[in-house]
Design brief:
CATH superfamily of one domain: Tetratricopeptide repeat domain
Shape: elongated
Strand content: under 5%
Low-confidence stretches: 1-25, 562-568
CATH architecture of one domain: Alpha Horseshoe
Mean pLDDT: 87
Radius of gyration: 33 Å
Distance between the termini: 45 Å
CATH class of one domain: Mainly Alpha
Length: 568
């Protein structure tokens, strides 16, 4: 949510707009106002009290004294002074205006609202009264009313940073996010270091659907305040929506360390981890969420779903999901997750649960995808097709969805359609060997042999597909490490893979990179020869050559033919 600050314009500045601009040394009001402007509140109070002892009926002196006392936080004394002045001058617009500011400063919103309405009756053009009424309206969750007051302000007033910021908040609260962006940008143009305006601009851009801009703006906000957990959370959420989920998890891992009490962070970690197949991390996150938000049954539902998907506690996961749908029979997500969890053990019950989910929410794309997958696995591709096509229409860039749709087209002897969707899937997941294998088969089926050979070569480099396997816990723990610790663990993983499978060309290229970074040139030369013997694809040859040139190993780089990867 956008942060709404309670805007009160500077009291002294407002007062001076309605008072005579006297400055003679022998004029006590002018002298008191000058002291107030300098910030010498004690002197201003002394001058005004002396004047009131001399002239108790001086309403102007009482008005200025009220402002001074407010600045000194002497609110009870100020209240008495304002009320005496209003008894003598009940129809003074500027006196009422300052009294309204006093009421705001002491938290009396209802009285302040009545007072500012009186001000506008006496002086419809009083800017401060309109601004404060808009602020009160926002505090009372009435953004439309706030905008009515703000829209009537002169253009010059609307362009001031304080009012532009309030306009942005009001527009955001009213759901007019694109317009709100304009006002927050106006604030930043005038005040480039205003962190709050930068953050609010990022939130408005996100809600307006301008995700790329939101990510850029929120990244700048995080650079200004690297430890701000709110910014971390919102930046992670935007990254997740942009399908940069690994980056989102990296940010959330830091946020969770800084704010272990934040349930919303654990929930987002749980959702994203599940999306990436890290169900162990998801189950752990939802367990922490349940401790932080025990009244929210969805935590138990999501933990059960993750545990069932992980396979380590399938019975416990199913029990949680069954408990949830019994307690919440109208929750479509619960039926979908229970149906998905039952797919491997009870296909008929799974289909019933998925149908229940879609009866409650016909456009629930994950449930349509799960039902299509169930039908495909039961040997009914003609039934699966409708659900897969429906899901692909709503998630046109989702590689997993397109992969299943492509498989179904192949099963129905529609290889041209399979090539079309699998090409998009491969572009979105260029390192997924399962998708590439299906793409290569579709290319072969349509007679595109040359491209198919290049795709199959890439499949051999990547090795067996692992994209659909559930991962145990560990990713969040890794992301919580320092960069040096992450690098050490990455190095150990590369070395372990190379030792276990020396034929893994991609792992060998990663190992080459590590050796070059360490300056181990003799070992790098030996590994280069091993890589060449494995006949890597043009893409990996080019990558290795780039590494070697960067390390000034030009002769070795030439052995990789210094060529760019062929189009695939």
């Amino acid at each position: 949510m956008l942060f709404l600050r309670f805007l009160v314009l500077p009291l002294a500045a407002v007062t001076l707009c309605g008072l005579p601009a006297q400055s003679a040394d022998d004029d006590p009001i002018g002298a008191a106002v000058a002291a107030l402007q300098r910030g010498n509140l004690a002197s201003a109070e002394s001058i005004l009290r002396a004047e009131l002892r001399r002239r108790p009926d001086n309403v102007t002196a009482e008005e200025v004294l009220g402002v001074v006392l407010d600045q000194e936080k002497k609110f009870s004394e100020a209240d008495a002074v304002y009320r005496r002045a209003l008894t003598a001058s009940p129809h003074s617009a500027h006196l009422l205006n300052n009294f309204g500011n006093h009421l705001l400063a002491t938290g009396r919103l209802a009285e302040a609202r009545k007072t500012f309405l009186k001000v506008l009756t006496l002086n419809p053009g009083q800017t401060n009264a309109s601004v404060q009424l808009a602020t009160i309206a926002l505090r009372q969750k009435s953004p439309a009313e706030a905008l009515r007051y703000l829209d009537k302000l002169p253009v010059q007033a609307q362009q001031s940073p304080a009012v532009a910021k309030l306009m942005g908040v009001a527009l955001s609260s009213a759901g007019q996010y694109a317009k709100a962006e304009l006002f927050f940008q106006r604030v930043l143009t005038a005040q480039p270091d205003d962190f709050r305006a930068l953050y609010d601009l990022g939130l408005a851009a996100s809600h307006a659907g301008h995700k790329e801009r939101a990510r850029d703006v929120l990244q700048k906000a995080l650079e200004k305040q690297p430890g701000n957990v709110d910014v971390q959370y919102d930046l992670a959420a935007v990254n997740a929506e942009l399908n940069r989920k690994a980056a989102a998890l990296e940010i959330l891992a830091r946020a969770a360390q800084q704010a272990p009490e934040r349930a919303d962070i654990q929930a987002l970690i749980g959702h994203i981890s599940s999306d990436l197949g890290y169900f162990g991390d998801a189950a752990d996150a939802w367990g922490r969420y349940m401790e932080l938000a025990p009244a929210d049954d969805s935590g138990r539902r999501e933990r059960g779903f993750a545990e069932a998907a992980l396979g380590l506690k399938p019975d416990g996961g199913l029990a949680d999901l069954k408990w949830f749908v019994e307690k919440h029979p109208s929750d479509a997500i619960g039926h979908y997750e229970l149906g998905t969890a039952e797919c491997s053990s009870n296909a008929e019950e799974a289909e019933q649960e998925l149908n229940r989910a879609l009866t409650l929410k016909p456009d629930l794309a994950p449930a349509r995808f799960a039902r299509g997958l169930l039908a495909y696995r039961r040997g009914k591709p003609e039934l699966a097709l409708t659900d897969f096509e429906f899901t692909a229409q709503r998630q046109p860039k989702n590689p997993a969805v397109l992969n299943r749709l492509g498989e179904t087209y192949m099963a129905l002897n529609r290889p041209e359609d399979a090539v079309r969707v699998l090409r998009t899937a491969a572009e979105g997941a260029p390192n997924d060997s399962t998708i590439l294998l299906h793409f290569g088969r579709a290319l072969s089926k349509t007679g595109q042999a040359q491209e198919a050979r290049a795709v199959f070569a890439r499949v051999r480099e990547l090795g067996p597909g692992r994209s659909e396997l559930p991962h145990p816990a560990g990713l969040i723990d890794f992301l919580s490490l320092s960069p040096a610790e992450q690098q050490a663990r990455y190095r150990a993983g590369v070395e372990r893979t190379v030792n276990r499978n020396p034929q893994n060309v991609e792992a060998q290229v990663r190992y080459l990179e590590l050796l070059l970074d360490d300056g181990k040139l003799a070992e790098a030369a030996a590994i280069s020869r091993q890589i060449l013997a494995l006949k890597p694809s043009p893409a990996l040859r080019f990558e290795a050559a780039q590494m070697l040139r960067k390390a000034q190993q030009y002769e070795l780089a030439k052995q990789f033919q210094d060529q760019r990867p062929a189009a695939q």
